[in-house]
Amino acid sequence: MIHIVHNAADVDVLQKAIELDETLAGDVIQVKDDYAVGPLQDIYTAEGIENRKQWQRDVLAGGDYDGAADSGEVDDQKTVAELVERLNSNPDEVIWIWAAQNKHDVCSYYWLMSQLKEYQGRIFILYLNNLPFLNEKGNIFYPAWLSEIPAKEFLKAKKLAREITLSEFEVDPDEWMKICQEARGVRLLEGGKKLIQQDYDFYDAELKKFVTPDWQKASKVIHQFLSKAKHTTGDMYLLWRLKTMLAMDLFDVQGNVGKMKDFEVKLKTAN
């Protein structure tokens, strides 16, 4: 059995669950890219993959993860090739794709399953969509991320595993390809597995609200956004958007505009 998750924190909690239940025994593999942001046109071609990587280079340039796009740490194409090899070499191998109800997991699900159609019957989905769980204090909650679920609660979650149907393998990749070709940069989860798209500047209006008349480090502005905004995304995407707005001369800035803690911003001083 191979378990697929979409966040580093999910790996840890699922491995702890496996320690509690040997029937879950298997490798835990992470799809690492965030397909909820960035270009997706022709994403399964060499040109589309390179276009996305170039966008990632631009987003990360000069920031806290400058150069990470070429580090090899994120290589989902290699991950899929290895999964296919394992499925081909062992006819009894199965894949469980875990997903919580958030745009990151759902986009990752679409991206991955669209490449595994020929293995229908061996690919399972565990979609924790609006399902209640118990937290560490015994209170009912609805997790937005797999990592929020206590390890012992995964023993209940495993009962949700079901085969991805032939119909889903027909319909879901078609929906995903429509999304990929729309040439928009931000994807949001509307409900169930339904994604909607916005432009690259979608987060800008909300991010602006956390820039005040007083100097603040960019890291503080971003962390305020992440703790208070309804729709959030990765901190590096937000850093890129903040730099984009600075390039448009929307705010005053001091310091070296690079890493989040290296510069400060505030609202423009009135003349």
Total E-strand runs: 12
Beta fraction = 15-25%
Number of domains: 2
Radius of gyration: 20 Å
Helical coverage, percent range: 25-40%
Strand order of the largest sheet: 2-1-3-4-7
Largest sheet: 5 strands, mixed
Instruction: Tell me, rounded to a whole number, the average pLDDT.
Output: 93
SSE order in H/E notation?
Answer: EHEHHEHEEEHEHEEHEHHEE
- Number of separate helices: 9
The coarse overall form would be: globular
Task: State the end-to-end CA separation.
Answer: 65 Å
Sheet/helix structural class: alpha/beta
Low-confidence stretches: none
Keywords:
single chain; 271 residues; alpha/beta; 2 domains; five-stranded mixed beta sheet; three-stranded antiparallel beta sheet; 9 helices; 18% strand; globular
Kindly summarize this structure in a few lines.
By secondary structure, the chain is of the alpha/beta class. Helices cover 37% and strands 18% of the residues.
Question: Can you give a write-up of this model?
Answer:
The protein folds into 2 domains: 2-179; 204-267. It is built from 9 helices and 12 strands. By secondary structure, the protein is an alpha/beta fold. β8 (186-191) and β9 (194-198) form a beta hairpin. The strands form 4 sheets. Strands 2-1-3-4-7 form a 5-stranded mixed β-sheet, sandwiched between helices. A 3-stranded antiparallel β-sheet has the order 10-12-11. A two-stranded antiparallel sheet has the order 5-6.
Question: Which helices and strands, and how do they pair?
Answer:
Layout: E1 2-5, H1 8-20, E2 27-30, H2 46-60, H3 76-89, E3 95-100, H4 103-113, E4 123-128, E5 133-134, E6 140-141, H5 154-157, E7 162-163, H6 166-180, E8 186-191, E9 194-198, H7 204-208, E10 216-217, H8 218-228, H9 235-247, E11 251-255, E12 263-267
Parallel strand pairs: 1-2, 1-3, 3-4
Antiparallel strand pairs: 4-7, 5-6, 8-9, 10-12, 11-12
